[in-house]
Amino acid sequence: MTPQQRLNVVLELVSERGNVSIADVSDALGVSTATVRRDLNTLAEQRLVTRTHGGASALGSGYELPLQYKIARQADAKLAIARAVADLVAPGESVGLNGGTTTSEVARMLGRSERLHVGSDVPGVTIVTNALNIAYEMSVREHVKIVVTGGVPRRQSYELVGPLVGASLRDFSIDTAVLGVDGLSAAFGATTVHEGEADASREIAAVARRIVIAADSTKLGRTTFARICPLSRVDVLVTDLEPSREMAADLAAAGVEVVVARNA
């Protein structure tokens, strides 16, 4: 594990648990307490955690990890989900993508797809996104046409938010919106942790003929702060494991098709 990877693990532990001790992190990572102490000091200097006596705490109860520090703990699952989502897209379609680790993998799969590469003069797929990192990475793909919404960027996620998102999408018609979420439940539908990102995702969904939720199984049955849309608005859920019996019943009642992605 590289020092940066170790810092990422430490930061995610703090974010998940709220508070950690030096001994907790040392046991979890199998490194010395001196190393953990240095790592916590480094993260505190970057204002990513609050240093406490004998450990560290998250900056607040609603703290969100910046995208560049998020670890793909479900990396294999997200790759499988991305492949399955790409298989749902036909050549020539337009796809709306919000930001996040899963949708970033979806964009990469769309960009690599030979099936969608229909010709040098015709876009194999048009990606409409409010995520600056996705737009930047896909801009070099000759068969991908990139359309970026307006808005103000959030440093944590590289997503553009604000009223300019909706204003720039008003005259569009998107075939499929692929949305990454932080939670999906029967009671609150698709949710995320930040209200501005929820608004932007809702604007993308509003101009799409089909809404696909790309979410690993850890998001199912979970509710976070800001609602994107109710479960009844979702057409397809692509996930990595069969949902629980209760969740499966809720999805069926809402008319949501479930696609379980398999690792290649």
TrEMBL record:
<dbReference type="GO" id="GO:0003677">
    <property type="term" value="F:DNA binding"/>
</dbReference>
<dbReference type="InterPro" id="IPR037171">
    <property type="entry name" value="NagB/RpiA_transferase-like"/>
</dbReference>
<feature type="domain" description="HTH deoR-type">
    <location>
        <begin position="3"/>
        <end position="58"/>
    </location>
</feature>
<protein>
    <submittedName>
        <fullName>DeoR family transcriptional regulator of aga operon</fullName>
    </submittedName>
</protein>
<dbReference type="InterPro" id="IPR036390">
    <property type="entry name" value="WH_DNA-bd_sf"/>
</dbReference>
<keyword id="KW-0805">Transcription regulation</keyword>
<dbReference type="GO" id="GO:0003700">
    <property type="term" value="F:DNA-binding transcription factor activity"/>
</dbReference>
<dbReference type="InterPro" id="IPR036388">
    <property type="entry name" value="WH-like_DNA-bd_sf"/>
</dbReference>
<dbReference type="Pfam" id="PF08220">
    <property type="entry name" value="HTH_DeoR"/>
</dbReference>
<dbReference type="InterPro" id="IPR014036">
    <property type="entry name" value="DeoR-like_C"/>
</dbReference>
<keyword id="KW-0238">DNA-binding</keyword>
<keyword id="KW-0804">Transcription</keyword>
<dbReference type="Pfam" id="PF00455">
    <property type="entry name" value="DeoRC"/>
</dbReference>
<dbReference type="InterPro" id="IPR001034">
    <property type="entry name" value="DeoR_HTH"/>
</dbReference>
<dbReference type="InterPro" id="IPR050313">
    <property type="entry name" value="Carb_Metab_HTH_regulators"/>
</dbReference>
<dbReference type="InterPro" id="IPR018356">
    <property type="entry name" value="Tscrpt_reg_HTH_DeoR_CS"/>
</dbReference>
